[in-house]
Amino acid sequence: MDLLDFVAERREQIAFQGFQHVSLVVQCVLLATVLGVALGVVCHRRAWARGLAAGTSSVGLTLPSLAVIAVVYGLTRDGIAAAVASVTFYAVLVIWRGAVVGLAGVDRSLLEAAQGIGMGRTRRLLRVQLPLAWPVVLSNVRVATQMTMGIAAIAAFVTGPGLGGLIFTGLARLGGANALESALVGTVLVVVLALVLDLLLVLLGRATTPRGIRA
């Protein structure tokens, strides 16, 4: 059986696992964006908090994803919970740091001008700071999405959902029938879907970034 026959025979299974993979990553990145931006808002005003965000992100991102997934699975005995927790964890680290950098980089004279025309702290945050920081935040959301597409595949090691099932099934049976096709299809689809999500985020950035601050 060649690669095309393998895909044709299992197209429904492959499409379902691809949907699971994208759904997992999109939902976790959305959750991580909310958490990361909220943490960024809390941390960006103080130097020590900005240092804490940078340090925590740097240390967290050095943790092997397989180890994190295994630890969460050991605690929950649930592959889906392990996948969601680990993907969200890594995405939060990236987006949190981006939110801190983006918010801290907003020109203080603009904030003072906004305060001068009567804007309170919340309005300045929502109407001035977050829109100006959004391009930096979104660039980190793109990085987090690309990174977690790969991490989501590793979650299949503990029966997590998605295309990792094809990859691990193939690797576990290397030398057997259709093993190479299974691993190859899973890997290629992860890359293709990551590129599609990145393109959608680029379009989202163009639609949501004020024209005056587009790069």
Helix share of residues?
over 70%
Largest sheet: none
Q: Estimate the mean pLDDT confidence.
A: 91
- The radius of gyration computed from the alpha-carbon positions, rounded to a whole number of angstroms, is 20 Å
Number of strands: 0
Q: Point out poorly predicted stretches.
A: none
CATH architecture annotation name = Orthogonal Bundle
Strand content: under 5%
**Which class best fits the helix and strand makeup?**
mainly alpha
Annotated CATH homologous superfamily: MetI-like
Order of helices and strands: HHHHHHHHH
Named CATH topology: MetI-like fold
Determine the number of helices (DSSP H or I, runs of at least 4 residues). 9
Compute the number of structural domains. 1
Please provide a written account of the structure:
The chain is mostly helical and 215 residues long. The chain has a single domain (3-208), classed as MetI-like (MetI-like fold), CATH 1.10.3720.10. Helices cover 82% and strands 0% of the residues. The chain has nine helices and no strands. Helix 4 crosses helix 5. The longest helix has 34 residues, at 121-154. It is elongated and about 70 Å long. The chain starts with a helix and ends in a 7-residue tail after the last helix.
